[in-house]
Structures are given as C-alpha cells and as structure tokens.
Amino acid sequence: MLLEPVRQGDIVDVVAPASRCASSDLQSAVRILKNMGLRPRVPKNMFAKSLLFSNSDEVRLAQLREAVYASDSSMIWCARGGYGALRLMPGLERWRRPSRAKIFLGYSDITTLHAFFNQKWGWPTLHGPLLDRLGRQAMSAGEHRQLFGMLFGEVAVTEFSELEPMNAAAKKSGSVRGPVVGGNLTVLQSGLGTKSSLRAGKHILFLEDTGERPHRVDRMLSQFAQSGLFKSARAVVFGHFQLADAKDRRGLWNDVMPRFAASMKIPVLRGLPVGHDPKRQYTMPFNTPAVLSLGRAPHLLVKSGIVSA
Fold first, then answer.
1. Of 208, 212, 240, 304, which one is the catalytic site residue?
2. What pTM was computed for the model?
3. Which of 127, 203, 240, 276 is catalytic?
4. 144 is catalytic
5. pLDDT tens digits, residue range 154-192?
6. What's the 3-state SS for the chain?
7. Which of 47, 155, 210, 269 has its Cβ near the most Cβ atoms within 10 Å?
8. CATH of domain 157-303
9. CATH topology of domain 11-151
C-alpha cells in the first residue's frame, strides 16, 4: 500500500490521542505549518483539564475518528505522546478500515496506534517527531529535511548507516528483508495479551525507550522472548534509549543488551538515531519494504511508502 504525498494547501489533521502538549508549542507548530503552505486543522476542544490525558477517552477517540475518516485531509500528526492511546483501543477495534489510507505521524505512546494501523489496516505509518517538537523548533536541519522530504514525496528511501552489530548473526555478511515495525518498548509491553499486541512475524523489529532502568529493560525483553515475540522476527535493531544516569547507561549497554543479543539467533544491532534522544529524532517508516545489510558496515534502507503519482 502506497500513500500520496502532502501538497501545498493540504489539510493536516492534528490529534492528541494521549497527553496534551504546551499550548504555546502547538500554536508555534501551527504557524510553522502554515508558513510551509499547509493547513493544520486543530479541534477546538482538543485539550481539557485532566491529570493524565489531553481530554476524556470519548473526546480523544472521537477526534481521532474524525481525522481518520476525513475525506479532505492527507495527513494526521499527533501533538504529543505521554500516555492514553491504549485506552482508546476497544473503541478503535470496532472501526471499519477507511477506503483511503493517509499519512500518520507520531511516536512514544503513539506506538499503540502504529501497531493497529500497521497490522489491522495494513497502513504504512511514520514513527517520527511529534508536533510539539516542531513547535519548539527542536528539530535539527537533518531531521527537518528528512521528514518533510518524505511528506512531500521527495525522499523515497532513507538510509540509516553506522549501525553496530551486537551478536554473531549480525556480523555475518548478508542481508535481511522485511518491513520495520515496533516502537517504544514499554508501550509495546503494555499491549501484550490484548487485541493490539504487536506481532513481529517476518519483520525487522525496532525498539527504543526513555527513562527505564536497566533491570526493567531486561524484564521487558525477557517477557517478549518468553511470549514468542521474537520467534518469527528477521532482526532486532535498537534505537535510542534515553537514560540520564551514567551508571544506568553502562548497565544497559554493557550488561543487559549484550546478554540479550547473545541469546538471540537472529541479528541484533544498535545505533538507529530514532527515539527519545532530545538531539536527534529521525523518522522511521513502518510497514514499508526495508533491507538490513549485515557484516562489516551494516546499514538499513527503508522506503518511505509515500510516492508521488
């Protein structure tokens, strides 16, 4: 399935399926998109007083539905992650697949929605910067160029180089083909046993996270292994794990991850500049053709899924 690129004058539906962002960041992002010739559409009552979410479950679900089924917009951009998307899944599971797929962009807690759109509807999606990052003008020139190049159909393939092999299978010459799926490790764990649970059959599994202690990451990876998540996966590639404590970083990358990689028969690599890194958040296309080259200079080529007619 291919997506149509965004064009000048197109409507971009803004949604907040999880937590709210700062109103100033949202307003700034709206101005930036307008200056780029796009028409961001923000629901009037998108934010309400809540300790956890941008709004009630009912309102968030209704706003997401409006954006998904809108015939006049070409893209949906999530304002922020945080927490809350999982609570929408019982309602989302009852929706019919729209006749037309559209670009869907976000990450972090939005991982739950990526898994649904990828698996249930077959949509390609973009795991990439949330709208508030654009509003804070926190995107680097490289991030901006890559993301908007994809959105406007000018960047058909993205290459992620400088990957680091972590086990024997990743060091052997060869290649692995399959769509990339995955996202935030903790969010994926919360979906295990539910209808929205990720299935990584014949896929390249991408994982990232933020703020998790090494023992918690080990526990999640152990649960995934015992649940069979890695059974049919072609490879595992780690993105950025944002950890503030130096001791935790050493524990994660010198203990937890090497032990996990050694236990896996499929290639395991690290080094994708994708995830919660405040300095680098490149966009990863999900559910599109991808090739992971292994050996001395491993790199990942991923098609955007967005093609100009």
1. 208
2. 0.96
3. 276
4. no
5. 999 999 998 999 999 999 999 999 999 999 999 999 999
6. CCECCCCCCCEEEEECCCCCCCHHHHHHHHHHHHHCCCEEECCCCCCCCCCCCCCCHHHHHHHHHHHHHCCCEEEEEECCCCCCHHHHHHHHCCCCCCCCCCEEEECHHHHHHHHHHHHHCCCCEEECCCHHHHHCCCCCHHHHHHHHHHHCCCCCEEEECCCEECCHHHHCCEEEECCEEEEEHHHHHHCCCCCCCCCCCCCEEEEEEECCCHHHHHHHHHHHHHHCCCCCCCEEEEEEEECCCHHHHHHHHHHHHHHHHHHCCCCEEEEEEEECCCCCCCCEEECCCEEEEECCCCEEEEECCECCC
7. 269
8. 3.50.30.60
9. Rossmann fold (3.40.50)
Q: What is the pLDDT of residues 85-132, one digit of tens each?
A: 999 999 999 999 999 999 999 999 999 999 999 999 999 999 999 999
Domain ranges of the chain: 11-151, 157-303
Reply yes or no on whether 240 is catalytic: no
CA triple 303-304-305, angle to 5 deg: 95
Out of 108, 190, 196, 304, pick the active-site residue: 108
212 is catalytic: no
